[in-house]
Write a structure and sequence with these properties.
Elements lengths: L1 H7 L3 E3 L3 E3 L8 E2 L2 H9 L3 E7 L2 E6 H10 L1 E3 L5 H10 L5
Parallel strand pairs: 1-6, 2-3
Antiparallel strand pairs: 2-5, 4-5
C-alpha cells in the first residue's frame, strides 16, 4: 500500500518506528533501551509493543518530524495503537 502511495505522490513515506533489540534493522530507526526509557519519561512514546525479543515504538518526535517533511504512513496492527496516534495528533488524518 505504501509503495503504491509513494508511486502516486512522493510525499508519502513509511514511518520508520524506533526499535531496540536484535534482528532486522532495515526499515527501523535503531535505538537503545536506555534511550527508550528517556523517551517514556518525557512522554514521547505514543505506542510500543514487544515482539521477537525487541521493542518497537511510535514516538511523537519522529512522527512530528516526518509530518513536517511529508505524509507519513504509519503501519499499525492494533486498534489501540491507531487510537493512541490519532489522540496524540488529532489535527492529522
Amino acid at each position: 500500500m505504501t509503495a503504491e502511495l509513494q508511486r502516486l505522490d512522493s510525499r508519502y513515506q513509511q514511518f520508520r518506528r524506533l526499535k531496540a533489540g536484535s534482528g532486522r534493522t532495515t526499515g527501523y530507526r535503531m535505538t537503545t533501551d536506555a534511550d527508550l526509557a528517556a523517551l517514556r519519561a518525557a512522554g514521547d512514546v505514543l505506542w510500543e509493543n514487544r515482539r521477537y525479543g525487541s521493542v518497537y515504538v511510535v514516538d511523537a518526535h519522529g512522527l512530528r518530524r516526518q509530518l513536517h517533511d511529508g505524509i507519513p504512513v504509519v503501519h499499525l496492527g492494533q486498534v489501540q495503537a491507531v487510537d493512541a496516534v490519532r489522540n496524540a495528533f488529532p489535527h492529522v488524518r
